[in-house]
Amino acid sequence: MAINQCELRPMGKPIHRKEDPRFIRGQGRYVDDIVLPNMLYMSIVRSPYAHAKIKSIHTEAAYQVPGVKLILTGEDLEKLNLAWIPTMAGDVQMVLATKKVLYQYQEVAAVIAETRGAAADAAQLVEVEYEALPVVVDPFRALQPDAPVLRDDREKQSNHIWHWEAGDREKTEEIFQAAPVVVSQNVRFQRVHPSPLEPCGCIADYNKATGKLTWYVTSQAPHAHRTVLAMVSGLPEHKIHVISPDVGGGFGNKVPVYPGYVCAIVASLQLGQPVKWIETRTENIASTGFARDYHMTAEIAADESGKVLALRVKTVADHGAFDAAADPTKFPAGLFSIVTGSYDFQQAFVEVDGVYTNKAPGGVAYRCSFRVTEAAYLIERTMDVLARRLNMDPAELRLRNFIKKEQFPYQSPTGWTYDSGDYEKTFKLALEKIGYHELRKEQAEKRARGELMGIGISTFTEVVGAGPSHSFDIMGIKMFDSAEIRVHPTGKVIARLGVRHQGQGHETTFAQIIGEELGLSADDVLVEEGDTDTAPYGLGTYASRSTPTAGGAAALCARRIREKAKKIAAHLLEVGEADVSWNGEAFEVKGLPSRKVTMSEVALAAYTNLPEGMEPGLEATYYYDPPNLTFPHGAYIAVVDIDKGTGAVKVRRFLAVDDCGNVINPMIVEGQVHGGLTEGFAIAFMQDIPYDEDGNCLAPNWMDYLVPTSLDSPHWETDRTVTPSPHHPIGAKGVGESPNVGSPAAFVNAVVDALAPYGVEHIDMPIFPWKVWEILRQNGVTE
Amino acid sequence: MQIRVTVNGRVHESDVEPRTLLVYYLREHLRLTGAHVGCDTTTCGACTVLLNGKAVKSCTVLAVQANGQEIVTIEGLERDGELHPLQKAFWEEHALQCGYCTPGMIMTACELLARNPFPTEEEVRKGISGNVCRCTGYVNIVKAIQSAGRQLAGQTADPENRSEVVSSGN
Questions:
Q1: d(CA A168, CA A424)
Q2: CA angle, residues B10, B13, B14, in degrees to nearest 5
Q3: Is residue A605 classed as helix, strand or coil in its secondary structure?
Q4: Going by fewer Cβ within 10 Å, which terminus of chain B is more open, N or C?
Q5: Which residues of A touch B75 (CB under 8 A)?
Q6: So what's the pLDDT on residue B167?
Q7: Do A197 and B43 touch (CB under 8 A)?
């Protein structure tokens, strides 16, 4: 069919995705689609208690089920020194429970059988005797001196995990003491879950003869997973082959290493057969990487004109039973220090305390960079609180406080250097495009009639591209990324990258970058990722890091090839290298543009007709350690109407204006924005994982944990400004998480704005209709 | 139990455990892996196939219930190397990202367009509300389904003239 990827100069064009033909035919290859000869299935026995001693485990009855091959318990893993494994955050985590369980749905035993059904049947027959222990679900309660200590395996006899801070406490304090205006707001960012459509799973296939483990896994970071496996299992790293095939969404949920993975690998090592484990939706929600769960207090010091002076933030972070958060080791609360947002604060001080509770572990940065969603939500909520206190339009307050474009590169009070931005331009475009002033007039008229309409603004600065090795590492491994490009004799290219996409369209966008740099069409470039035996080492795809890191690696790798190609071109054109220039599509003789050779001609020559003494071939590898992060920004505006009878909020309009620097494929960028907005909408209005006081997870499936459907989800309007990153090889910044980071505040600000006549200053998410209805009832608006 | 099922025009005779769900029969017995399992609670629709022309979530149908019936899966939509208009439209309108929901979404849309070739945005959103997508935000999916509807009905038909079109009615 006619699609436009054959053109040269593919950068910036809305090329249809190269990966789609397999998905629209049902020919995607996800982990559960793979069947290996003699494959066994694994099912996990999980704890019904949130906190309990394990008195005994009996597996005899389960072993009687026909087809059962092996049942693993914590005791079995202890013998292999695998009952506990290190987490990516420097803690340790139980693989299968030993002595006691610490959260509901914790892994207690693993049953391996010849069929999926037999494994599930036998898992039900594993008898575990528990003795209940006192449960702590509230992190503030967990911090009290008389609270039961949950993690008695640690030296520290409290539930406090770590304290982290950024900024200058004293200078911030000084400004607060002198400031004419101070506002303060408590804000909860509830526990949510990334919930990719495909749950997590793997097939471990250990070949006893070769000693090689092939591991198919739903992984956002296959190389990092290989290294972790080598570290914990003792298997040599070159004999671990990780394959991350098509991945049905990740959003951060597929970054950590989960107990089920380890059990499947141990079982395959013991049995010498492939073992498949595919989790259920309940297992996914109730036991794998949740997100957020931050209890935050923000204070802003300002002058009477609305100029912000200082920001102070205190946060309690509920990390559940193990600190399995996927964070760089230097930042336990990660990029929460971006909490000053798009505003020019003189000083800021941020502190976060991590706490253990009897909840599932594994806080992940769900579609965001290590806590930047929490930060963006907090500052945008609190700016609105300040606007309300000053009786000022929230748009005006923001305009008075933006970091100005001439201030870039901007040094933030918590230590980051923002690369570039033009916040005012982006914001003014958003105001104009949505018709902000007309909407305010309409709102005033509606209010006069007693109708409830709200306009919510969120302007944000994202910080993406976790990579610069001076700041970032995972378990000590520095967070560069990589590309390897091979140009074949006929001018066709295979490129392999260290990242691993889960729907972001890398096969197309990286082909565009490489095609652009090499003067080829995107069609000539095949991009492969996710196979550790072939791809160069990389840290994976999350935190919108692929374009800023691997995108940079791809461009620079292609330029390295072009350097050699130029020498070959000079040889073919029979001139000196200094007389050759690259015109974007071919090498030409300076001053004689009709004398030129294309990359395809050079490619053939690289294997057939080289300058004397030159090494044959045309390929390169590049490991790119970015000099800085990139800082995309955006301005989002939501317009909502509230039904006075039911409290239901209807999002009438939502406009997202994003600036992610130079755009590789505008169609893909827009798709990412649509998806992120929908997830942000869900967080604002639908999603929460509550626990009762006994530690029961109350939303362990998609009937209780709500995912937005086409009926719930609003129509999205988008636009864009372009402020290239000055330090990125192609001026790109990354976009995938921006809409999820920026949108929750816009929704909540809109609802609070609608309810402002009743003195409402804040509503915690998710804004279920009953919460709004209750406010309306208290104010006599409804009965 | 012995069952006899027509899948994508081919007759299959199989011996299945009575508890086998249709989705696992298709995926594991017939190796048609286009239908995916996403939620286990009939919420997400990633496993949607056509059973006698009606879109069903194959995680909620037992394989034995399909005995003697006719099933079409995503693998059965392409004819003689030519993609179905829905498949083309999903590609052209960028209506997918990770691709996991896509087969189920397309199968639901198949039934929707068979009933109503020119659905409004509202009707499409209602029609696919049993299929969850976590990547696209639905805007482009709606566009793709409307575009495919126009292609299926032929360019000459008038989308404005809705009086001759049977409304989806749900």
A1: 27
A2: 125
A3: helix
A4: C
A5: 25-27
A6: 34
A7: no
From chain A, the residues in CB contact with B141 under 8 A are 710
- Which pLDDT tens digit goes with each residue over A274-314? 999 999 999 999 999 999 999 999 999 999 999 999 999 99
Distance from CA of A711 to the nearest CA of B (A): 5
Q: Which of residues 16 through 75 in chain A touch B, CB cutoff 8 A?
A: 16-17, 19-30, 32-33, 35
Distance from CA of A713 to the nearest CA of B (A): 7
Q: Which chain A residues touch B100 with a CB distance below 8 Å? A: 28, 30, 196-198, 248-249
CA-atom Rg of chain B in angstroms? 16
- Three-state DSSP at A14 gives coil
For residue A272, give both structure tokens: 């010498």
Taking Cα atoms as reference points, which of A52, A257, A288, A94 lies closest to residue A191?
Answer: A288
pLDDT higher than 70, residue B160 = no
pLDDT of A6: 74
Q: With a cut of 70, say whether residue A5 has pLDDT above it.
A: no
Q: Which of residues 14-53 of B touch A (CB under 8 A)?
A: 17, 19, 24, 27-28, 31-41, 43-44, 46
The SS3 of residue A309 is strand
Neighbours of A60 (CB within 10 A): 10
Peptide bond before A626: cis, by omega within 30 degrees of 0?
Answer: no
Please give the mean pLDDT across all residues of chain A.
96
Q: Which of A312, A367, A496, A562 is catalytic?
A: A367
Supply φ then ψ for residue B2, to 5 degrees: -85, 130
Does residue A2 belong to the interface with chain B, where contact is any CB pair within 8 Å? no
Task: Report pLDDT digits (tens) over B29-86.
Answer: 999 999 999 999 999 999 999 999 999 999 999 999 999 999 999 999 999 999 999 9
**What was the pLDDT predicted at A4?**
54
| B39, B103, B133 ranked by CB distance to A702: nearest | B39
The string of pLDDT tens digits covering residues A248-281 is: 999 999 999 999 999 999 999 999 999 999 999 9
Q: Is B102 helix (H, G, I), strand (E, B) or coil?
A: helix
Please, what sign has the CA dihedral across residues A569, A570, A572, A573? positive
Active site residue A220: yes
- N-term to C-term CA, chain B: 36
Cα A22 off chain centre by? 25
With contact defined as beta carbons under 8 Å apart, do A312 and A186 qualify? Answer: no
Q: H or E segment at A75?
A: helix A74-79
Restricting to A residues 247-266, those with a Cβ less than 8 Å away from any Cβ of B are 247-249, 251
> CA triplet A264, A266, A272: central angle to 5 degrees?
90
For A513-537, how does the pLDDT look when each residue is reduced to its tens digit (9 = 90+)? Answer: 999 999 999 999 999 999 999 999 9
pLDDT above 90 covers a percentage of chain A that reads 93
With beta carbons less than 8 A apart as the criterion, state whether A636 and A681 touch.
Answer: no
Q: How far apart are CA A726 and CA B128, in angstroms?
A: 43
**How large a percentage of chain A has pLDDT more than 70?**
99
Note the pLDDT of residue A472: 85
**If you average pLDDT over residues A560-586, what whole number do you get?**
98
Cβ A32–B43 below 8 Å, yes or no?
no
Residue with tokens 């890091």: A545
Q: What are phi and psi of A650, to 5 degrees?
A: -105, 125
- pLDDT of residue A315 exceeding 80, the answer is yes
**Separation between Cα atoms, residue A671 and residue A663, nearest integer Å:** 13
Chain B positions in Cβ-Cβ contact with residue A29 (cut-off 8 Å): 33
Q: Looking at the complex, report in whole angstroms how far the Cα of residue B45 sits from the nearest Cα belonging to chain A.
A: 10
Contact A330, A474 (CB under 8 A): no
Taking only residues 86 to 145 of chain B, the set having a beta carbon closer than 8 angstroms to any beta carbon of chain A reads 87-88, 90-92, 94, 96-103, 106, 121, 124-126, 128-142
Global pTM reads: 0.96
- Judge: B131–A35 Cβ closer than 8 Å, yes or no: no
